[in-house]
Amino acid sequence: ARLDLSLAEPVIERSRLDYMRAAARNYWNWLGNGERLDAAEELTELAVERDTALETRVKRGAAANIDRVDNQQNIALRNGLVVKADRSLQQSTIDLSLFLRDDAGQPLLAGRRRIRPMPKPVAPDRTTFDAALSRALAERPEFARLALQREKLVVERRFAANQVLPAIDGQLVGNQDAAFGKSPLSGPDGLDRQVLQASLVFQLPAQRRDARGKLQTLDAQVVQLDRQLQYAEDNVRAEVQDAYSLLERAYEFHKQTVRQAELAVLVARAEREQLRLGRSDILRVTLREQTKFDAQILEILARQEYWRAESDLRAADTSLGRDGFSLTLPATLPATEVA
Q: I need a labelling partner for 255 at 20 to 30 A (CA). Which of 1, 11, 40, 233 fits?
């Protein structure tokens, strides 16, 4: 019974890790969607500002009205991107509210002003993997659960082994005649007869197939749990390796997206300058800006993927929620600021 009580702890710990992993993933998704909305609004503002300049040029006869119409079409298209990005942010805010709650325990919708830029990825090294693997093999709740189940089977096997052995019972029995149940042998004085019996009973079961079958079943279950423990160790090792591999690749991929975004920004800025000098057109500027926007979105996604991988690694080694992870929202903002 004590082992059954102890078995609840690994289950609770596993649920806690799954909960924290889901919270982390929703958190990074929320931050990323906030940055994507910023990028979409920035892209739209460029077209709006250009529309003002084009209006002046069209009035002066320096540009054809079709150029302004083309730019206004881009404004409408980019406003649609803003609407879609805003919807994604609202959805991620609602998802995050399942993990972000006020003092009364009610879901809290975090306002947009509480969004902070996602941190830059940090290069992982081999010590990160070694520490994560060592911690996972020592603290994962699966190992504790299987170890307790094995210990419980050992106790049950001891009981089954006891049932196979001969039984020796000591008995002490006493009786006394009383009232109308007096024995005629009590004598003329009507004294009651008192009897005290002591015995030692030895029993040897002739058929012990049930007990022996139970022993064989428990022996097989113990072997099965030993195999499960070995498989759990291999599975945890593979899980940590996979999470670390994803973290490494996410870091390398992010470096490439940063370079791509930097170049796209330079090209888009140069193309806008060419348009100002009359050496380019709206179509080319639009394509350059769209390329820059796509590169920015890809860089944001790469950062999201890195931090999700980092959360997965810490969930795999049981450190998530223990060594400083929190929803880094400024506590000074009022709870009434909601999406």
A: 40
- What pTM was computed for the model? 0.75
In whole angstroms, give the CA distance from residue 128 to residue 28.
Answer: 21
| Three-class DSSP labels, the chain | CHHHHHCHHHHHHHHHHHHHHHHHHHHHHHHHHHHHHHHHHHHHHHHHHHHHHHHHHHHHCCCCHHHHHHHHHHHHHHHHHHHHHHHHHHHHHHHHHCCCECCCCCECCCCHHHCCCCCCCCCCCHHHHHHHHHHHHHHCHHHHHHHHHHHHHHHHHHHHHHHHCCEEEEEEEEEECCHHHCCHHHCCCCCCCEEEEEEEEEECCCCCHHHHHHHHHHHHHHHHHHHHHHHHHHHHHHHHHHHHHHHHHHHHHHHHHHHHHHHHHHHHHHHHHHHHCCCCCHHHHHHHHHHHHHHHHHHHHHHHHHHHHHHHHHHHCCCCCCCCCCCCCCCCCCCCCCC
Helix axes 209-276, 282-316, angle to 10 degrees: 160
Convert the pLDDT of each residue in 286-333 to its tens digit: 999 999 999 999 999 999 999 999 999 988 888 876 654 444 443 433
Instruction: Count the neighbouring beta carbons within 10 Å of the beta carbon of residue 107.
Output: 12
Token pair for 97: 């509210």
Element (H, E) at 66: helix 65-97
Q: Which residue has the tokens 């730019």?
A: 71
